[in-house]
Structure formats: C-alpha cells, structure tokens
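Researcher: Please generate the 3D structure of the following complex. Treat every line as part of one assembly.
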Amino acid sequence: MKNTQDHSERLTWLLGPAVAALALLAWELVVRVTQLPAFILPAPGAVWGRLLIAVQDGTLLRHGLVTLQEVLLGLAIGVLAAALLGYWLARSPRWERLLAPFVVASQSVPIVAIAPLLVIWFGPGLLSKTLICALIVFFPILINTIVGLHSVPQELRDLMRSLQASRAQTFRLLELPAALPVFMGGLRIGATLSVIGAVVGELVGADRGLGFLINVGRGQYDTALVFVAVFALVALALSLYGLVVLAERRWLWWQQKSNPSSFSYGEQ
Amino acid sequence: MVSNAPLLSVEKVSASFADRNGQLAVLRNVSFSVPRGQFVCVLGPSGAGKSTLLRLLAGLLPASRGRILFAGQAVQGPQAGVGLVFQDANLMPWRTALDNVALPLELRNDPDAIDRAWDMLNLVGLRGFEQALPSELSGGMAQRVAIGRALVQDPQLLLLDEPFGSLDALTREKMGEELLRIWELEHKTVVMVTHDIHEALYLADRVLVLGRRPASIKLDMQVKLARPRKLAVRYSPAFGRMAARLRAAIEN
Ligand SMILES: Nc1ncnc2c1ncn2[C@@H]1O[C@H](COP(=O)(O)OP(=O)(O)OP(=O)(O)O)[C@@H](O)[C@H]1O
Ligand SMILES: [Mg+2]
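Model: Done. Output below.
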C-alpha cells in the first residue's frame, strides 16, 4: 500500500522535469528546422549562454532584486490594506452592500491602462511599481478575506459568544483559523499577480528591474536576454507561489490531513 | 429559603422574530422553573421554538417579554456557569479533541486547561483520542467531545439542543446512557431539547411539552421512574402510559 503510494509520488516528481526536457527538445528542433534568426527565436543553448553572462556580470541579480523588492513591498501593502478593509466590510453588512459595486467596478479598469498614470504621478521609481503591485493584489485578497470571514459557521460564533470570548479572542481563536484557508487561496493568486504588476509597471517606465531588462533586450535585438528575463520572472512567481504553499502546509495542517489540495504536490 | 430557590426560573417569557410580514411570534407566555440538579427534557413539534427557548436560556437571544432568572440573577447575556451543546457537535476542525475540550478554559486563561481537558476526555470515554482531529472522529465521538467541552468549565446548568439528533438509533441509546452516567456523577442541572419521546422519558426527571407556534407550555409532566435507570425501563407499563400521554400532547 505504502509502497505503491511512494512509487506514484516519485512518478509525479519525475513528470515535471520530463515535460521540461521535452519542451526544450522541441524548441531546439524548431530552431534547427526553421532556421529562424537568433533575434527572433534564439536556440536554448544561446539563451543558456546569455543567462551565464547575465549571472556573471551581475545584471540578473541587480535587476532581479529590484523587481523582487517591488513585488514583495506591493504584496505586503496590498495584502495588509485588503485584509483590513475586508475584515471591516465583513463585519458591517451595510457598508459591504454599499461599497461592493464600487469595488467590483474598480476591477473592470485594466491595470495596464492605469499603470502609465501611476508612473506619471509617482515617478519611474520604486513607489509607482509598489502601488501597481498593491493595486493588482488588492482585489483577490479583499474578496477572499470577506468570503473567508463569511464562511465562519454561525454556530461557532454562538459558541464563542456563550463562552464570553472577547473580541480579540474571537478573532484569534475562531475567525482567523476559520477564514485562513480561503484567505490563503487569495494569497496564492495575489503572489503571482504581484509579479505581473511589477513587470507591467517596469515595462511602462523604469530604468531597472526585469521588465526594464526585457525592454533593453528588445531594443538591442538581444532576444536571448528577453528570454532570460522572462524565465527569471517565471522562477520568481513560482518561488512566491511555493512559499505560500509552504505556509499553507504549516498553518493548515489540519485541513491537509483530510483533503490535500491538488495544487500543492508533494508529501507532508 | 435560599437553598430552595430554583436555579432557573422563566417568567412569562415571549419571543418573536422580525420577518417579512412583521413579527413572527415564536414563544408566548412561557413559565416554568427548574430546581437545582433536575434533568428536564423539552419536547415539541418542529418549529415550535425549542431551540429559541434554549437560546433564551443561554442568553444568546433577548426575550421580547418576561424575564429569566439564573441563580437569582436576571439573564441579560451569555454568562459563566452555563454549558451549551448544539445539535451537531460544532467543533473547531483545526483543534484536536483535547484542544476543543480545553477551549472554554483557555478563554479564561486557566493554567490547568490541558490537564482538566484531559480528565474530561477520560470522563466522556475518549481516552486515546486526545490528539485526533474532529474530521477523524465518528459522529458519536464528536458529540462526546462537545459534551466534554460543555462540562469542562464545571457549569451549574447544562443546555443541550438535540445533542444526539444526528446520530443513528443505537449510538443514540448509548450516548443517552453515557449522559445519564455523567449526570449521576456530576449532578448538573440539565435542560435538554429532543424530539424523541422515549429518550426524554428515559433521561428526564420531568418533561415539558411545547405546543404549536406561538408556543406555550402544554404539558409539564414529572417522570417518576426509579434511578439508576436501565434501558429496559422502556418496556415497563408505566413508561408506555407516559409515552402515550406525551405523544397525545405533542400531536394536537
Ligand atoms: N434567527 C431567526 N430569525 C427569524 N426567525 C427565526 C430565527 N430563529 C428561528 N426562527 C423561527 O422561529 C421558529 C422556531 O424556531 P426554532 O429553531 O426555535 O424551532 P425548533 O422547535 O427548535 O424546531 P426544530 O425541532 O426543527 O429544531 C421557526 O419558525 C423559525 O423559522
Ligand atoms: Mg431546533
């Protein structure tokens, strides 16, 4: 029983690298067959070489750190603001009904469209990018905070009330743990969206960051550099997502025991 | 005089809810009092207001008229000394059985919370399941945890709202026996809502029947069956007569 489980576990782990290897092979084949020039589609080997250079001369680290800073700062601010507002709205149904249409409407404004405005207002530096990240992160966290708090069973609220729990105790011992699964779902989405926000901001106007690197690569027909930057962004988003999943495993152990999520591979 | 005073007295209590067409009167002029140590069961048709009555007693809901006295004090909100058990176990899924039982003590910053919760789990027959999560417990076991959680703070009054309603008939009987055993040990005052006539007669010293909405007390019957009771008491003629009386009171 245990053995077959281990076996299929190992298979899942091998599947990822296998698919990646196949994709690389296909890529190489396309380049060879079509003979596309390197500024349109560089070979995997060329991208690898460009990556090594970018690592050695410190370009990747320098720009990567800039983007990371924007992403984390924006995520922190967005999550904090959305969680606070969400908590308040979930506790005041009247305000929730009043504000809900505005919150939803604000979502139909594409972030790409207002990014230039933010860069105009707050300059091409860290501030405008952080704001874009915070804005894009805000909505999913807000919604999931509210939905999570609404999912707290009324009977457990009654229980806490009958035990004369204080406001703070009710939050710490009931609302927080009960809302956490849904909240963490929002955080998974928020973490990856934050990376998108940072890149959008950098593409619009910046003098550093991975998005800026993409612009540089494009301008110099250095397409391999564009690929390097894109892969770095993917790695960044995946790592953030992985961190959230790790946090879930720590905090939601009680839930994983009964229904492990298919979006977090691996054993406990 | 003081020792004779009832632990709980309900005086001309009415309750109503606001609904679409004005007010829905649920309870009207309900009066009864419960002496210390008595085991009272409340029966009544569905929707009669049994849960509402229990929520009033627990201080979770204000009465629209009348008043409720608990240990001589007017009930104005939830208060210490009352333990509550709901229809479904209503446990926190992120807490182990032990931690669920310890919750009321933890809220009071009791340094012995875990030790006392441990003893309580033993009392309700869950030794060895301290670290189990609610999702790993059967319905009956979860309900035992809920009873342990209500008892752990040593309440004077235990309120149970159809505590075995979601269990199968056999488990239900076992849990009833178990509850009697604990009650005989701890001798709490108990008010328990049930819809099972036999369960009420087997457990209670006294059965109250609520009528249809807006409900008042239709029948207040003493159950004079010797204790400790065996399950076989159900087959005695006296039991049958009382069951028939209760059924008649509920049905019309
Ligand atoms: N919070 C509430 N708001 C409005 N109406 C309510 C509320 N709680 C209960 N009611 C109404 O009051 C009436 C009595 O409800 P209650 O839950 O007390 O009945 P019950 O006797 O416990 O029924 P059951 O045996 O089905 O549990 C029902 O008609 C119900 O619709
Ligand atoms: Mg009920």
